[in-house]
Amino acid sequence: LELCNVFTQVDFVPFDPRTKRTEGTLRGPTGVEFKITKGAPHVILNLCANADKIREVVDAKVLAMGKRGIRSLAVARQDNEKEGWRMLGILTFLDPPRPDTKLTLEECAKFGVHVKMVTGDHLVIAKETSRVLGLGTNILGTSGLPVLATDGSVPDDLADQYGDLIIPPDGFAQVFPEHKYLIVQTLRQAGFRVGMTGDGVNDAPALKRSDVGIAVQGATDAARAAADIVLTNEGLSVVVEAIKQSREIFARLQNFILYRIAATLQLLTFFFVAVFALRPIDFYNNNFCPGPFWSNASTSCYNITPPLLASSLYNSPSFTNGQDPVFFQPTPRTCARGAMGC
Fold first, then answer.
1. Where are the beta strands (DSSP E) in 82-149?
2. Alpha-carbon distance 27 to 33, whole Å?
3. How far apart are CA 220 and CA 201, in angstroms?
4. Segment 294-309 mean pLDDT
5. CB neighbours (10 Å) of residue 67?
6. Which cellular component appears as one GO term in the record (predicted)?
7. Is the pLDDT reported for residue 99 higher than 70?
8. CATH number of the domain at 2-94, please?
9. Is residue 300 packed enough to be buried (19+ CB in 10 Å), middle (13-18) or exposed (0-12)?
10. What's the pTM?
């Protein structure tokens, strides 16, 4: 690395998920400037002037490493515009899944959550990773996937046109950000509730469009801003716990609502039958309160005052005349019985 200190960085173009590469301009110790780029092997290969001569060798190397789950990045150099780019080599690195990822996916499957892998990695690497995690190996490329219209709008009939292509597979590889966005939109139009996890800038549109966007630990600011939930710990096991708790809460709310509906229907049925089938006058006697109760009128007679009052009002002359005896024509007999409770 000390040899790199003699070079000065003049310009730098950050990674663009659309081009899948980054580029920098350096000045050597002699003052000569040149460009260096790194990115997806198939993208860098297409930039090289001798791409047709080295394509077979590069593809074979990438394929061999991809079958072992090893990811690769290609590096190329351009000394001047006339010569074009020339391949310098391939960088390899291993990025295995977390140990708890497979168990998390198995738990999701138990709860009826179907998981799809949507990645920008090479198709071979995606298939190997999916096989290790137990997701299946039906991983497709970008061929046939929906794209945005010429004016940048999203088609309204994605589910009808691409539903049969997007729903069955276990995942997609070598996709661009717009593919992720449209895959999520297609699943939503097909009637699914979609949750999306991501960490990069290229995941932000899909995170925003999904029903539940989840930014994992260490995600970029763009992904955090677009997501609904931001994880602060590594791994996705917390997602399973969130599914459990949310379903418990929903079940409790559903049970309570059903209980309240049943209790309300019970009361309504009782009062409906009582109103039409029973007459209060048939159950009360105007002279019900005997003499001995006068000694404890504040307790015993008070409890029967409303029924006796209703009975006396029902028999009052004002009631038979179609008028309200309480507010218009209270008779002395009614007031006496209401006050004394007998």
1. 85-94, 117-118, 139-140
2. 4
3. 7
4. 45
5. 12
6. membrane
7. yes
8. 3.40.1110.10
9. middle
10. 0.68
Across 191-207, average pLDDT: 91
Name the E strands within 152-258.
171-172, 195-198, 212-215, 229-230
Q: What is the mean pLDDT of residues 33-48?
A: 91
DSSP 2: G
Give 96: exposed, middle or buried? Use CB within 10 Å, 0-12, 13-18, 19+: exposed
Describe the chain by its helix, strand, coil percentages, rounded to 5: 50, 15, 35
DSSP code, position 115: P
Give me 280's structure tokens. 């209060």
pLDDT at 122: 84
Joined tokens for residue 204? 């932000």
pLDDT tens-digit series, residues 222-279? 999 999 999 988 888 888 998 999 999 999 999 999 999 999 999 999 888 888 887 7
pLDDT at 309 over 50: no
* CA quadruple 187, 193, 196, 201: dihedral, nearest 10: 60
Which position has the higher pLDDT, 152 or 108?
Answer: 108
Beta strands in 40-84 (DSSP E): 70-78
Question: Measured between alpha carbons, how far is 295 from 300 in angstroms, rounded to an integer?
Answer: 9
CA distance 117 to 181: 13
Coil, helix or strand at residue 79: coil
Q: Which helix (H) or strand (E) holds 174?
A: none
The two three-digit tokens of residue 217, written as one number: 């630990």
Structure tokens at 333: 């007999």
CATH class of 101-235: alpha beta
Q: Is 117 helix (H, G, I), strand (E, B) or coil?
A: strand
Tokens 């061929």 sit on residue: 143
Distance, CA of 146 to CA of 260 (rounded, Å): 47
